[in-house]
Design goal:
With 277 residues, the chain is α/β, with parallel strands linked by helices. It is 33% helix and 22% strand. It has eleven helices and 13 strands. A six-stranded mixed sheet has the order 2-1-3-12-4-13, with helices on both faces. The N and C termini lie far apart (38 Å).
Length: 277
């Protein structure tokens, strides 16, 4: 049985040595200079899309130049931010960041909540929850915070029951009280979940990777999170030393602006991406 608490998430632990070497976990990051340019590491959809909208439409009036560096995984953006290769990143939830910091000894902090991407359960084989077979394989994110979130989604769908009082951000298979279909859970790196659909009976896929695979939680998911009261906002993140940097704060204001909220609502009008507030 896969124990996610013990592993702290396969993708995070696999990168721990690299991150520790790259950023020097015991040495606090030095603040970067305020020079009107912010380099941001981001996953392509929707994060880079949102940043590029700001760069094209709002940044000049704010006196900013925004440079976007795209990454397709959940580890390297934090490595690059911690070692000041970039000024900030935009791709992750706070529970994921907390787990990453704990595993790597880094000092990354949240600056601004921007949007929510409802997590969804998808299948190429089952058209309804009822059609997921006895003993079926369900792929879930292999990192701890998203894995716990996936189990909470499956519990909300009625496929499993979690033990009373479990913190869903830390839930593992050991916390499953009932599994009436005897489902088998297959932990994978988040970027591989959409690719796994032909090989498993269902997969819980993070919002950005679902979007890249042309999947909508509203239209294609067998079950998805509600955005109402959802604690898994995606944040602009930087080092503790850079948290008060004037350029970072300007970008945070733009990310939470009415213009960006409207861009999100217009671009993802199916509810795949929802403003955080």
């Amino acid at each position: 049985m896969f124990n996610r608490r013990a592993l702290l998430g396969s993708s995070i632990v696999a990168a721990s040595a690299l991150a520790l070497t790259a950023c020097g976990a015991d040495e606090p990051s030095e603040p970067t200079e305020t020079n009107g340019t912010v380099t941001v590491a981001a996953t392509p959809v929707p994060h880079a899309d949102i940043l590029n909208f700001i760069a094209d439409n709002l940044a000049d009036d704010a006196g900013l130049t925004i440079e976007v560096e795209e990454f397709t995984d959940y580890v390297q953006p934090n490595v690059a931010t911690a070692d000041n290769s970039v000024d900030a990143n935009f791709f992750q939830t706070e529970p994921y960041l907390d787990e990453y910091n704990a595993a790597n000894g880094t000092d990354l902090v949240t600056v601004a909540a921007v949007h929510i991407e409802p997590l969804g359960l998808y299948s190429d084989k089952a058209a309804t929850l009822e059609e997921i077979p006895e003993g079926g394989q369900v792929a879930i994110p292999g990192d701890g915070s998203n894995g716990g979130r996936a189990l909470a989604l499956l519990a909300d769908a009625g496929l499993i029951t979690l033990a009373d009082g479990v913190d869903v951000t830390l839930a593992t298979e050991d916390d499953i009280a009932e599994n009436p279909k005897n489902l088998e859970f297959v932990p994978l790196e988040a970027a591989q979940l959409a690719l796994s659909l032909p090989d498993v009976d269902a997969a819980v896929i993070n919002g950005n990777y679902a979007l890249e695979a042309d999947l909508s939680p509203a239209e294609d998911a067998l079950h998805s999170e509600s955005p109402d009261g959802n604690p898994y906002a995606n944040y602009l993140v930087t080092t503790a030393a850079n948290a008060d940097n004037e350029d970072i704060q300007k970008l945070a204001e733009l990310l939470q602006s009415d213009e960006v909220k409207q861009f999100i609502l217009d671009t993802w009008d199916d509810g795949s991406v929802v403003p955080a507030s």
